[in-house]
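Work package 3, deliverable 3.1, input record:
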Amino acid sequence: MSLLVVGTMAYDSVKTPFGERHLALGGSATYFSMSASFFTKVMLVAVIGDDFAKDHLELLGARGIDMNGVSRLPGCTFHWQGEYGYDLNEAKTLATHLNVLEKFDPNLPESYRGAEYVFLANIDPRLQRKVLDQVKRPRLVACDTMNFWIHSALPELKKTLEMVDILFINEGEARMLANTPNMVKAAREIRSMGPRTLVIKQGEYGALLFHEGEIVSAPAFTLEEVFDPTGAGDTFAGGFMGHVARMGEKELTPALLRQAIVVGSAMASFTVEKFSIDRLKDLERREIAERFRHFKRLTHFEDLTAEA
Amino acid sequence: MSLLVVGTMAYDSVKTPFGERHLALGGSATYFSMSASFFTKVMLVAVIGDDFAKDHLELLGARGIDMNGVSRLPGCTFHWQGEYGYDLNEAKTLATHLNVLEKFDPNLPESYRGAEYVFLANIDPRLQRKVLDQVKRPRLVACDTMNFWIHSALPELKKTLEMVDILFINEGEARMLANTPNMVKAAREIRSMGPRTLVIKQGEYGALLFHEGEIVSAPAFTLEEVFDPTGAGDTFAGGFMGHVARMGEKELTPALLRQAIVVGSAMASFTVEKFSIDRLKDLERREIAERFRHFKRLTHFEDLTAEA
């Protein structure tokens, strides 16, 4: 089933303890699309500047991503500059140049309006709603957000949250949004704002999923070389939503969501192995299935016998 | 099979965002013994002062814990004073009064020397070895340690590590001991110091286990009310080692270790629900089995079909 994503396409300048990369392809919609493209047909909505390289568009095109919704404006592409410390846990933003993103006014091509699955990556909640308003009858709407909007546009964010089925959010931002450190309480509070399903991203510790009375915990894959965590969260969401769209089930069953969170974690574990989308662009379906099995091995344990 | 533990018995004064408790029963050996006593016969080695309450000894006695190895010295019992912030993640130590612990010189009763399983809780690595030297032919030796010994007694700690099969250690301390932020690398480095099996405690995120080529990840139980995290790590180790001793298998198989890490997590999830050992002292086997099943539910997911 078709999966529409709106978000950023960017050039990132990133420094990690293992190296640095200037003007690498990045952005939430880029990572999401690349990841989801392994599972389903992706329709991309974003804005780029006239500096955006043809090679990069071809790279996305090669993965079958529909780019009719990508508009090009005069000026430079959104540019993020960040740095990670020793433990790679949190990015320190050194500079954010919005550039053409300031004039982003998403208008969906007619062919996008029948999208069945929608992911609103982290952008202004007003723009998230503007996109949603143009989709006719989506089966499932998910979104992501960040501290910037929680601080500066909470009423707008809340209006968006009322319209979504699944929220993806970082642990720290969940605490901020719900105003409690406890994840079970935070989940209840956030789910009362709209999303029936909540996915809390915990970085190197994995993710928690809350849905009806269910809680699911998925670890992050234990990697010997985490090279650059940029894009891990959007790659995770891309794998999650891609799997859900691929399966195309009428209902979000617990079994489906349990698989989706592991598919998301598997995809994220590839992204962090290299800079930018370098690992995703050469990835094969065979490797995804293999990593999924590794996750099984990482978390499996036998029931206790009556004796034990 | 019998499980010997050496460690501290203490009075803790603890403040959390939810309340405070003055001179509550605590200490690594106390939490460990209480937890392990649900699974196997525990022999306790520790020192207490003449202020140590009869009620508290009876409480441990009621769980069948052998206290022939507990010696009473003139003076006050070890006293720790700490405080937890908003997110309960890390204790801030306000005061440590060693008191009788300064004169701790463990001498095992004859009846303890045939112990099959041994846990050396976090104390001076010299004392850990002194205890070990008195045990005849242990099948399995585990230990815990902390930043204080890594900083101040590394050569002594390394001598102890050469003699143990399993090390339990906090994530931050593993990074410190191995001098790398990456857990896979840290595990390799630490296992080269002696322990064949390494359990890295990640607090509210659960635990990782490294054994031969295996990695296992177990989440912490998601609780709505985490009241006081004091003792969680030792309770975890108590459940882990208690289960291993109960099963009494000749070899540490991956299947056994996978169960043990979940039993440990289940036990720790009880301890944090109340102050001190308040939750453990009323706990029933039935509740442990039920929580184990909840862990299964928290982490389970189905294999992908060929289609997916």
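The mean pLDDT of chain B is 95.
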